[in-house]
Design a protein that fits this description.
Blueprint: E1 2-7, E2 12-13, E3 19-20, H1 27-38, E4 42-47, E5 59-62, H2 66-77, E6 82-85, E7 92-94, E8 113-115, H3 119-123, E9 132-139, H4 143-153, E10 158-163, E11 175-182, E12 187-194, H5 195-213
Parallel strand pairs: 1-4, 1-6, 4-5, 6-9, 9-10
Antiparallel strand pairs: 2-3, 7-8, 10-11, 11-12
The structure holds cytidine-5'-monophosphate.
The site of cytidine-5'-monophosphate has 13 residues, from helix 3 and strand 9.
Amino acid sequence: MKVLVTAGPTREAIDPVRFVSNRSSGKMGYAVAAAARERGHAVSLVSGPVALESPRGVDVVRVTTAEEMLAAVKKRVRGCDLLVMAAAVADWRPKKTAARKLKKSAGPPRIEWVATPDILRTIAPLKKPSQTFCGFAAETDGLAREARRKLREKNLDAIAANDVSKTDRGFEADRNALAVFFADGRALRIGLATKKKCAAALLRALEEISARKKM
Ligand code: C5P
């Protein structure tokens, strides 16, 4: 299969030295990309700014902002069989990026925020019946309810939800536990394990969905 994966946070600039972002380390998305490659797929990885080495054999495209990630995904999504959106896209960006560093002496700046594009929602109309799209949901409350809502609203085939209120898993950790919800109502629990193991288990499930679509 041709697999497209996104990973990491995005970074939205306030001025030339400051930005807003989130705690995503990129480890989960990189593990998905590496696992997909190991399972014999052709993999492209659109990555936000992370401190990780490129997985061997994977075509890595580096981006910074949500807009850049959207453009990179749009360009590649048409040709892919499976899209896994593991990136933690920043939800808001400053309406204007100051061209010069804001002076501390001027006091705390009043920043006007605007929403960044929702990548999955934007590309949903482009989705072909033969394609499989999987999102991620990082939640602190109402994991299953929130994940099922996003699955429906973003027109996904699957969504992998993880609890980010615990320190032994999720953001920045080397381990994770996933609750995967599928469009047909099924759910799959992947217990606390290395992100590598979680990624392999997730991919097995997504390969099955993709294979069924192509029968
Ligand atoms: O709505 P929420 O951000 O929690 O949804 C998470 C899923 O949506 C993830 O798969 C994430 O990559 C994707 N997403 C997106 N564009 C955004 C925000 C999230 O595609 N602006």
